[in-house]
Amino acid sequence: MPETLLTFETPVIRDWVDFNGHLRDGFYMVLFSYGVDGLMDQIGLDAAGRQATGHSIFTLEAHVNFLHEVKLGAQVQVYCQVLGHDAKRLHVGLALHIKGNDTVMAYSEQMLLSVAMDGPRASPFVPNVAARVQMLATAHRSLPRPAYVGRVISLPAAKTA
Amino acid sequence: MPETLLTFETPVIRDWVDFNGHLRDGFYMVLFSYGVDGLMDQIGLDAAGRQATGHSIFTLEAHVNFLHEVKLGAQVQVYCQVLGHDAKRLHVGLALHIKGNDTVMAYSEQMLLSVAMDGPRASPFVPNVAARVQMLATAHRSLPRPAYVGRVISLPAAKTA
Hints:
Two copies of one chain form a homodimer.
Chain A: E1 5-11, H1 25-42, H2 47-53, E2 55-66, E3 75-85, E4 89-98, E5 104-116, E6 121-122, H3 127-140
Antiparallel strand pairs in A: 1-3, 2-5, 3-4, 4-5, 5-6
């Protein structure tokens, strides 16, 4: 399994499955969203941390590649890699796996923003959070950067016929 | 309101609202997913059309920009613009609005794939669907292409301090 951070795990429930009989695209993103919650828990921004600091995280932008169908009842896990950061932004990659299987079922690159909830307004990570972000960034620096990072959506070049 | 195609409308329900008190990022994507269902209905791929043709649509890839908070109870609409297509792919832009307001609350660019469900495997749009896709593409060709199309996620260039 990945050397990145396990941040969420759940079975796929019936509410998330579409008329094609598998996880609806939008709900992959709900799983990644819960994966970001799990990351927040690990950098000091769980409910108690948000309350104490008045800070939270908003998602600015996301990209997702849907790679394989995921079926009802599958036990899925979200692994998170810190790809980069600055004083108030956190660039992460999130990989969806079936538990015990190395295949990436979907991958989402996301840009997260540290916010002070009294605005809400963009605001640097508080020191305790910044230290944990730095620690993760250092730990993940040497891991390979997946091919799904930095993509642009486009139609393939036209072929004859 | 946009000249593009209205494909979904709903009030924002409690299940979709996060601990920050507004629509959770993942659920914006669920709304866009329902917006694609609405598009499918209008190009002959509603439940009856899927049954008759054995074809459906899968989402290959998506990009989303979260622009404004959306609150519990807001009446939201998804508008769809066809940005391009080929024999089996459909490139669309989806804009989330509050009903009656021109402000784009979130924007998602997506690449959709026509599939034959007996695989499932990639398969060209059936003629009736292809004709409707072509009609929409022609109707939307002259509309402006939003700035959120073709983006890459990245940290801003580093500044001093």
